[in-house]
Specification:
The complex is a heterodimer.
Chain A lengths: L6 H8 L12 E7 L4 E10 L2 E10 L2 H14 L4 H15 L23 H15 L5 E3 L3
Parallel strand pairs in A: 1-4
Antiparallel strand pairs in A: 1-2, 2-3
Helix pairs in contact in A: 1-2, 2-4, 3-4
Chain B lengths: L12 E2 L2 E2 L1 E2 L10 H14 L9 H21 L7 E4 L2 H11 L6 E5 L14 E5 L9 H7 L4 E7 L11 H10 L3 E5 L11 H4 L3 E5 L10 E5 L1 H6 L10 E4 L4 E3 L13 H14 L4 H17 L4 E3 L9 E6 L4 H10 L2 E2 L1 E3 L4 H6 L5 E5 L6 H18 L1
Parallel strand pairs in B: 3-15, 5-6, 5-7, 7-8, 8-9
Antiparallel strand pairs in B: 1-2, 4-10, 9-10, 11-12, 13-14, 14-17, 16-17
The chains are: A alpha+beta, B alpha/beta.
Chain lengths: 143, 388
C-alpha cells in the first residue's frame, strides 16, 4: 500500500531470519531507541576477520526488525571491511541514495521519505558497527 | 456544531487524503480568531510593556493585563495578580519546584503524571500513588502517602495518556487536611472542563495555551496570592524588579516577580482570544459523544486493545494493535491522512504499569467530527491489511 511497507519488509518483520541467541557468539552489541522503546541485541561470531554468523533478538517496529533481519543475512561471511562498506551503503540508501546491487536491502529505500523512521532502519546497523569495533556495549539512536 | 470551519489548518490534504487531525492532546489547532488576534497585535500594537509612556506601549501593556484579567475569569481566580504568565506547564512546575520553600523533602504525585509533572520533582523524594487497571487513581494510596514529610502534592487534573479525570477536589481535601499544598497540572483539563480554582481549592494550577486553541509558548501558573508573595523570585532580570543598585535589587510583588524579561505579549493576546473563542461553548457533551463513538469504533476492530477504561475521562483513546508496532500503525495512518500520536506519550512509567513501552493515541477536540473516528476505523483496517 505504501512505498515504505514493501512486501519484503513486512515479510521480514513478520518472520525475521536469524532471530534468537547465537551459540559461540564472541561479539555483540545492544541497540536501543529510547524514543520508541525499540531494543535489539545483536550477536556475532567472528573468526579472524570474517563474520561467520549473526543473529539478533529483541523487539521493534517493522522497519527496525526487517532491517536487522536482512542485515544478519547480508553480513554472513563478510570481512569487517565489507561490512563497513555495506553499512555505509545502507546509510546512503535511507538518506535517498541508490540501492543498486543491494538485493533485498533495497526495499529499505522507501525509508528515505520518512525522516522520522530512518533511525529505525539504522538501529541494527549501528549495533553491527559497535559489535565489529569490539565495543560490546549499547548504542543508542540518540547519541 | 460545526466548529471545524473555524480552524484553517484542518482544511488541507495530507498525502493526497483529507487531513484527519487526532493529535489534539499534543497540541490543538488554532481557530482563525486566535491567528488574527496575534497578527493584529503585531500589525497595530506591538511595543514593549510596562516601561514606555508612548501610545503603543500603553496599548500593549493594556492588552497584556487584559489577558491576565481574562485568564483570571476563565479559571475563576480571586485576583488577577494570582495569574503568572509562563511558557507552559513545564515552566510552571519548574518555577514552583524551585521557588516554593519548605523543609520537607517528599513530593506525592499520581501514577498518571506527564513527565513534565514528574521530572522537575525528582530532586526531591518522589512518592507515587498508583492507579487501578481501569486507570483510575487509588485515592486511598494517595491519602496514605501524604504525611509529615510531604512538601507538596503534584497531580494531573486529567491524564494525557489515559484521559482519566482525577478527583481533584478530593485530592485537595486530603492534602489540606494534613496541611499540605497542592499543585494541579491542568494541561489536558483546561481545553475540555470548566476549571474553577476556588472551588477546587488547589494552591497552584498550571495550564498551557497551545493545548486549548491558543498559541504555543505561553501558559499560566495560578497560585494563591499569599503563597506566591512568599516565594522567592525565579529568574532574575528586567521587569521583575523595583529598585536596582550595582550590588542588589528589590523585587516586585507577584506576578511580576516571576516574569523576568520581555513577555510574549502577542501570545498573551492569542491566549485571550482562545478563551473568548472557548467561552459559551459547551464542548464537553459534544466531546463525550465522540468519545463513545470512538470506543465503539475501536472495539469492533480485531486486535485493537484499548489501554485503561477510566470511569470519568476526556476524549483520549490510547490503544495498541496486536502484532503491529505503534510506529508502524502511526505511519500507515499518516499515509491515510490521519494524525495520531505514537510512542510513550511522555508517560513512560505509566505505560510500563500497563505493560507497554509504546502505544497509539487518538485525541479529540472541539473540532473533531464523527467521520474522523470512522476514518480512524478504516485506517486501522488498512493497518491490519498491511501487516495481516
Amino acid at each position: 500500500m505504501t512505498d515504505l511497507y514493501q512486501q519484503t519488509i513486512v515479510e521480514h518483520a513478520k518472520r525475521p531470519r536469524n532471530f534468537g541467541p547465537l551459540p559461540g557468539a564472541n561479539r555483540g552489541a545492544q541497540g536501543v531507541n529510547p524514543l520508541c522503546g525499540d531494543e535489539i541485541e545483536l550477536h556475532l561470531r567472528v573468526e579472524g576477520d570474517r563474520v561467520e554468523a549473526a543473529t539478533f533478538e529483541g523487539a521493534g517496529c517493522a522497519v527496525c526488525v526487517a532491517s536487522a533481519s536482512m542485515m544478519t543475512l547480508a553480513v554472513k561471511g563478510s570481512s569487517a571491511a565489507d561490512a563497513a562498506r555495506l553499512m555505509q551503503r545502507v546509510r546512503d540508501l535511507v538518506a535517498g541514495g541508490d540501492g543498486k546491487n543491494l538485493g533485498e536491502i533495497e526495499s529499505l529505500k522507501g525509508v528515505a521519505r520518512y525522516p522520522a523512521r530512518r533511525k529505525c532502519a539504522l538501529l541494527a546497523w549501528r549495533a553491527l558497527e559497535a559489535a565489529l569495533a569490539g565495543e560490546a556495549t549499547q548504542v543508542s539512536t540518540e547519541l | 456544531m460545526n466548529l471545524w470551519r473555524d480552524f484553517p489548518a484542518l482544511d488541507q490534504a495530507v498525502h493526497g487524503k483529507p487531513l484527519v487531525y487526532l493529535d489534539s492532546a499534543a497540541t490543538s489547532q488554532k481557530p482563525r480568531a486566535v491567528i488574527d488576534a496575534i497578527s493584529r497585535f503585531y500589525e497595530q500594537d506591538n511595543a514593549n510593556v510596562h516601561r514606555g509612556v508612548h501610545a503603543l506601549a500603553e496599548r500593549a501593556t493594556a492588552q497584556l493585563e487584559d489577558a491576565r484579567e481574562r485568564v483570571r475569569r476563565f479559571i475563576n481566580a480571586a485576583r488577577a495578580d494570582e495569574i503568572v504568565f509562563v511558557r507552559g506547564v513545564t515552566e510552571a512546575v519548574n518555577l514552583v519546584a524551585d521557588s516554593f520553600e519548605s523543609d520537607r523533602d517528599e513530593i506525592v504525585v499520581t501514577a498518571l503524571e506527564h513527565h513534565s509533572n514528574l521530572v522537575p520533582w525528582q530532586r526531591f523524594k518522589v512518592r507515587v500513588a498508583g492507579v487501578d487497571d481501569r486507570g483510575d487513581l487509588r485515592l486511598d494510596e494517595l491519602e496514605k502517602l501524604i504525611g509529615p514529610r510531604t512538601r507538596l502534592v503534584a497531580a494531573a487534573h486529567v491524564s494525557n495518556a489515559l484521559g482519566t479525570i482525577n478527583p481533584v477536589e478530593k485530592i485537595v481535601k486530603l492534602a489540606h487536611d494534613k496541611g499540605v499544598a497542592v499543585l494541579l497540572d491542568g494541561a489536558q483539563a483546561a481545553p475540555h472542563l470548566k476549571v474553577d480554582v476556588q472551588r477546587i481549592g488547589c494552591d497552584f494550577y498550571a495550564f498551557s495555551a497551545h493545548k486549548m486553541y491558543g498559541p504555543m509558548g505561553i501558559g499560566v501558573l495560578y497560585g494563591k496570592a499569599a503563597l506566591l508573595d512568599a516565594m522567592r523570585p525565579w529568574q532574575r532580570g528586567g521587569e521583575m524588579v523595583q529598585k536596582v543598585s550595582w550590588e542588589s535589587a528589590t523585587y516586585q510583588k507577584a506576578p511580576y516577580r516571576f516574569e523576568a524579561g520581555t513577555p510574549d505579549v502577542a501570545a498573551a493576546v492569542g491566549l485571550r482570544a482562545a478563551i473568548e473563542w472557548l467561552s459559551g461553548k459547551d464542548l464537553l457533551e459534544h466531546e463525550q459523544g465522540l468519545l463513545r463513538r470512538g470506543i465503539d469504533v475501536l472495539q469492533t476492530i480485531p486486535g485493537v486493545r484499548l489501554l485503561g477504561a477510566p470511569r470519568e475521562r476526556i476524549g483520549i483513546l490510547t490503544f495498541t494493535v496486536e502484532g503491529v508496532h505503534p510506529h508502524d500503525v502511526g505511519t500507515v495512518l499518516d499515509q491515510e491522512g490521519i494524525a495520531v500520536r505514537t510512542g510513550h506519550l511522555c508517560a513512560q512509567p505509566l505505560l510500563e504499569r500497563f505493560g507497554q513501552t509504546a502505544v497509539v493515541r487518538a485525541s479529540l477536540a472541539a473540532y473533531s467530527r464523527p467521520e474522523d473516528l470512522d476514518a480512524l476505523g478504516a485506517g486501522l483496517h488498512k493497518v491490519r491489511e498491511t501487516f495481516g
